[in-house]
Write a structure and sequence with these properties.
With 312 residues, chain A is of the alpha/beta class. Chain A has two domains: 221 residues, Rossmann fold (3-Layer(aba) Sandwich); 77 residues, Alpha-Beta Plaits (2-Layer Sandwich). Chain A is built from eleven helices and 14 strands. In chain A, the strands form three sheets. Chain A has a six-stranded mixed β-sheet, sandwiched between helices. In chain A, helix 3 runs parallel beside helix 5. The two termini of chain A are 36 Å apart. Chain B has two domains: 242 residues, no CATH class; 113 residues, abc type-2 transporter like fold (3-Layer(aba) Sandwich), CATH 3.40.1710. Chain B is 69% helix and 4% strand. The chains are: A alpha/beta (312), B mainly alpha (381). At the A-B interface, helix 2 and helix 3 of A face helix 1 and helix 9 of B.
Chain lengths: 312, 381
C-alpha cells in the first residue's frame, strides 16, 4: 500500500508554546486514521499544518509522495476537508452550496452535477436540496458541511470532529457516510474525542496529548497497553467505605471507585469476577440495581496513559 | 466561472437591499439638482444706509446726498451716536456715512476732505463703499479740470451711465453647472453604493470559514481575488450606467456635448477607483455590521472634504490640503474643469489629464495594497 501522508518531526509553536511537538507518522492508502485527544491536544493544529493552513517551525510533510505547500494545487485537488465549524453561504441553497465548493475543483458541469447528487445522496439531504442553511437543523447543517467537503470525490479526506453537537440520527448518517467513502477507496483522517466513533470507524488510532503522540496502533494494540482486562460497573445507592476497602482486597482487583452511586471495579484478569462480586453483594445484603461487565475502552487506555479522561 | 456565478447569486439574493440603496442614492443626486439655483440674471441691489450730515445741504454736498439717496435706501435715525451704533449692530443699516462740516466747500476747493464710513463688513456695505468711492473719484476729476458748479450735471451723467455686460461665453453655463452638481454628487452616490454593496457581498466570500475552505481548494487565491474583482466591476458598471442614464433624463441633451461625455468618462474612471477602494475595505473589515459606519465615514467624509456638497473654495485651507490626499478631490476637480472647459487645447486639457492619471494611480495603489494585505495575512498564518 502507498503512503498517502508522511509527517516527519512536525513541530508547531505559538509564542514558544509547543502546540505540536516532534510528531511523526504515516497514513496508508485506504485506511481511516483516528486522531484522538482532549481539547487542546494538537489535533486541529496537526491537520492545519498538513493542509498548509498553518506555518510550522520544524518538520516535513508529504502528501501523495509530494511535499505539501500552500501553492501545491495538484495535491490540493485530491484533498477534501470537513471542518468542525459549518462553512457554507447563507445566501445559497443546499444544492448551490455544494455546487460552489465542488466547482472549485470540478470544472465540467455535467460531471459536477452527478457528483453533487451523489454527495447529497451520501449525506441524506435529498429532500432538502432547495433549502437555505437557515432552514436546516444543526444535524442537517453538519451533513451539508460534509457534502460540501467531499462532493468532488477527493482521495484524501480530513474530518475534524464532524459529529460535535449532532443528534443521534444525523450522527449515524454521518458515520455510515464515512464508511461508504472508505469503501469507495478514500483515505480518511478522523479527529474526534468520541471514542465510540473511533472504535467503530478507525483502522488505526493515534492518541495525542499536549501536542505529543502518546500512543499509536490498531484499537486492539492500544487496548493491550492497559493492564485492565475487565471492568464491572454496579449501581448502588449507598456503599460504605468499609465495604469499598473489602472489595479492594478481592483477587485480580486493580482499582475501586465509588462516585454518584456508581461502583466501578477494574480487574487485571477476567475470569468469574462478575460472579464473585455478585455473590459477595448477596451475602452482605448490599442492594444494587444494575450490574454489568465490559472490556476496557480507549478511554481507559487514555486514562492510564495520561491520568485524565479524554473529555476532560 | 463557478465563483463568478456564485458572486451573482449572492448579489441576486441581496437584490432588494441593493436596489433600494442605489435608488435612494440616485434620488438624492436628482434632488440635489432641484436645489441648484443657477440663475444668470442680475439685478441692482440697494443697500440700506444712514447719513449723518454735519454740512449745509447745498452745493456739492446736496448733490452727493441726492446721489446716495437715489442709489440706496436711506434710513432716517435719531441723530444720536447710540442710535446709529444700534442700527448698525442690529443690521437695520449696513453703512453709516458721516459727512463733516464744510465738506462740499472743501471738496470743490480740492482740499481732500474725508467722510467717515462705518460698515458691517457685509457685501452691502462694500457695495456702498464702492458707490461712494466711484462718485468722489469722478467728481474729483471734474473739479481738477475746472472747479465750477456746472460740473454737478456732468458728474451725475457720468456716474449714472450704465455699464453694458455681455456674456461672451458660448457655453450653456446654467446646464453645465447642473451637470457639475449632479456629477459631483456622484462622489457620494457611486462611492457609497460601491462600498456598501461590495462589502456586503464580499463579507460572505471573505467569511473566515468559507475563506479557509477556498484556500485549501485547488483554486489559486490571486485568481480567486481577480474573479471577485471582476464581479465587483460588473456591479459597479451597472450602477454607473444607471447613474448616467438618469443624468441624461434629468439634464437633457447637454450630456451629449463634449463636456457631458467628459463628465461621463470621468465618472467611469472614478467608479473603477471606487471599486478598488471597496475591494480593499472589504479585505479589512470582518464584521458585516460595520459596513454602514464605514460607508458613512468614507463616502460622506470624502464628499464633504472634497467639495461634493459644498464648493471647496468655501472650505478652510487645511481641509483643502487634506482633500488632496483623496481620489474624490481629483474626480470633483475634474468635473469642475470639464464643465467650464471652452477651449479644448493642451493648455486647458493638461490639468484634466493630470487628475485622470492621479485617479488611475489611486486605483492601482488600492489593488496593490489589497494584494499586499492578502499575501501578508497568508504569511502570518
Amino acid at each position: 500500500m502507498n503512503k498517502v501522508i508522511e509527517v516527519e518531526h512536525l513541530t508547531k509553536e505559538y509564542k514558544k508554546q509547543k502546540a505540536v511537538n516532534n510528531l511523526s507518522f504515516t497514513v496508508q492508502e485506504g485506511e481511516i486514521l483516528g486522531l484522538l485527544g482532549p481539547n487542546g491536544s494538537g489535533k486541529s493544529t496537526t491537520i492545519n499544518c498538513i493542509l498548509s493552513l498553518l506555518k510550522f517551525q520544524k518538520g516535513k510533510i508529504k502528501i501523495f509522495g509530494k511535499e505539501m505547500t500552500p501553492s501545491a494545487y495538484d495535491i490540493k485537488k485530491d484533498i477534501g476537508v470537513v471542518f468542525q465549524e459549518v462553512a457554507v453561504f447563507e445566501e445559497l441553497t443546499v444544492y448551490e452550496n455544494i455546487d460552489y465548493f465542488c466547482g472549485l475543483y470540478i470544472k465540467d458541469r455535467k460531471k459536477r452535477e452527478q457528483f453533487i447528487l451523489e454527495a447529497i445522496d451520501l449525506v441524506g439531504l435529498e429532500h432538502y436540496q432547495k433549502f437555505y442553511p437557515k432552514q436546516l437543523s444543526g444535524g442537517l447543517l453538519r451533513r451539508l458541511n460534509i457534502a460540501c467537503g467531499i462532493a468532488h470525490k477527493p482521495k484524501l479526506i480530513f474530518f475534524d470532529e464532524p459529529t460535535v453537537a449532532v443528534d443521534p440520527q444525523s450522527r449515524n448518517n454521518i458515520l455510515s457516510g464515512i464508511e461508504t467513502l472508505r469503501k469507495n477507496g478514500a483515505t480518511i483522517i478522523y479527529t474526534t474525542h468520541y471514542m465510540e466513533e473511533v472504535e467503530i470507524l478507525c483502522d488505526r488510532v493515534m492518541i495525542l496529548d499536549k501536542g505529543e503522540m502518546i500512543a499509536s496502533g490498531t484499537i486492539a494494540e492500544l487496548k493491550k497497553l492497559t493492564n485492565i482486562e475487565e471492568k464491572v460497573t454496579v449501581e448502588i445507592a449507598n456503599l460504605k467505605e468499609k465495604e469499598q476497602k473489602k472489595l479492594k482486597e478481592f483477587p485480580n482487583v486493580m482499582d475501586v471507585t465509588y462516585q454518584n452511586g456508581l461502583l466501578i471495579i477494574s480487574y487485571k484478569k477476567g475470569q468469574n469476577n462478575l460472579l464473585t462480586l455478585m455473590d459477595y453483594l448477596k451475602e452482605n445484603q448490599i442492594n444494587y440495581q444494575k450490574i454489568y461487565s465490559e472490556r476496557p475502552t480507549l478511554n481507559d487506555v487514555f486514562l492510564e496513559l495520561t491520568g485524565k479522561e479524554l473529555r476532560d | 466561472m463557478t465563483i463568478f456565478k456564485t458572486f451573482l447569486k449572492v448579489l441576486n439574493k441581496n437584490k432588494g437591499i441593493v436596489i433600494l440603496y442605489s435608488a435612494i442614492l440616485i434620488f438624492f443626486a436628482a434632488f440635489s439638482l432641484q436645489n441648484n439655483d443657477n440663475s444668470m440674471q442680475f439685478e441692482k441691489e440697494k443697500p440700506s444706509i444712514a447719513i449723518r450730515n454735519r454740512d449745509q445741504e447745498e452745493g456739492f454736498t446736496k448733490e452727493f446726498i441726492t446721489y446716495l439717496k437715489e442709489n440706496s435706501e436711506v434710513i432716517e435715525l435719531e441723530d444720536k451716536e447710540e442710535a446709529y451704533l444700534d442700527a448698525l449692530f442690529y443690521r437695520n443699516v449696513n453703512t453709516i456715512i458721516t459727512i463733516p462740516e464744510q465738506f462740499g466747500e472743501n471738496f470743490v476747493a480740492q482740499n481732500n476732505p474725508e467722510i467717515e464710513v462705518k460698515g458691517t463688513n457685509s457685501y452691502e456695505s462694500e457695495l456702498t463703499n464702492l458707490m461712494i468711492e466711484r462718485y468722489l473719484k469722478v467728481a474729483k476729476i471734474y473739479f481738477t479740470i475746472s472747479p465750477s458748479e456746472e460740473n454737478f450735471q456732468k458728474i451725475k451723467e457720468t456716474v449714472e451711465e450704465e455699464i453694458k455686460l455681455e456674456m461672451t461665453s458660448k457655453l450653456n453655463t446654467n446646464e453645465l453647472k447642473k451637470m457639475a452638481t449632479y456629477y459631483n454628487f456622484a462622489n457620494y452616490s457611486i462611492l457609497a453604493g460601491c462600498v456598501y454593496v461590495i462589502c456586503l457581498i464580499l463579507s460572505s466570500f471573505k467569511n473566515e470559514k468559507i475563506k479557509k475552505r477556498t484556500i485549501i481548494s485547488s483554486v489559486n487565491e490571486i485568481k480567486y481575488n481577480r474573479i471577485l474583482l471582476m464581479g465587483n466591476f460588473l456591479f459597479a458598471i451597472v450602477l454607473w450606467l444607471f447613474y448616467c442614464l438618469i443624468s441624461i433624463v434629468l439634464i437633457g441633451n447637454i450630456m451629449f456635448t463634449k463636456q457631458g461625455i467628459g463628465c461621463i468618462l470621468n465618472s467611469l474612471l472614478f467608479t473603477l477607483c471606487a471599486v478598488t477602494l471597496s475591494f480593499l475595505i472589504s479585505n479589512l473589515i470582518q464584521n458585516k455590521n460595520a459596513i454602514n459606519g464605514i460607508v458613512n465615514v468614507i463616502a460622506l467624509g470624502s464628499s464633504f472634504l472634497c467639495g461634493a456638497f459644498v464648493p471647496t473654495e468655501l472650505l478652510p485651507e487645511m481641509v483643502q490640503k487634506v482633500a488632496h490626499l483623496l481620489p474624490s478631490y481629483y474626480f470633483i476637480n475634474n468635473n469642475e474643469k470639464i464643465t467650464s472647459l471652452e477651449n479644448w487645447n493642451w493648455e486647458h486639457l493638461s490639468p484634466i489629464l493630470l487628475n485622470t492619471i492621479i485617479l488611475l494611480f489611486f486605483s492601482c495603489l488600492f489593488v496593490i495594497i489589497t494584494n499586499y494585505l492578502t499575501k501578508k495575512r497568508r504569511k502570518q498564518t
